[in-house]
Amino acid sequence: MAVTRSVLCFGLILVFFVLQRGVFGLVIFPGCQAPFVQLSGRCYFFSCMQKSWSHAQAYCRSISSHLARITSQSENNMIVSYVRNYFSVNFSWWLGGNDMAQEGRWVWVGTNSVLSYTNWYPGEPSNNEGIEHCLELRSVITHRWNDAPCGHAKNFICEK
Ligand SMILES: [Ca+2]
Ligand SMILES: [Ca+2]
Question: For the whole model, what pTM was predicted?
């Protein structure tokens, strides 16, 4: 009788484990794991921490992602509306674009592909004082893009 009860108990634990991992994990909570949020089938992390561009990219890598690569108008609109809804207008966000290797040649981190879609603010990229080589999405300029000095600490968006 005691053995039967133990087997039953073990069976229940096993069933619960499978339900929790298999059902809760895959069906009830699909998609992105915290701190990532899911937007149109992709996972983004909007960091309230502020870091230099390089440290931001290192942080994204440490959580198996990269600084965000915005490759279409629809992706840009989706990210802008999220940022507008949930964060202060004082925030500026590092994205994965940079022209560190060659001035004026803007590429995405990781893939090194040249930016096709862009949403620069008029007059940008300005490469002000010759030291602006990293891409930010800047809330105070109607959430458009600007090149800024990579060493400045800003909020950042990781994507995976
Ligand atoms: Ca530049
Ligand atoms: Ca600039």
Answer: 0.81
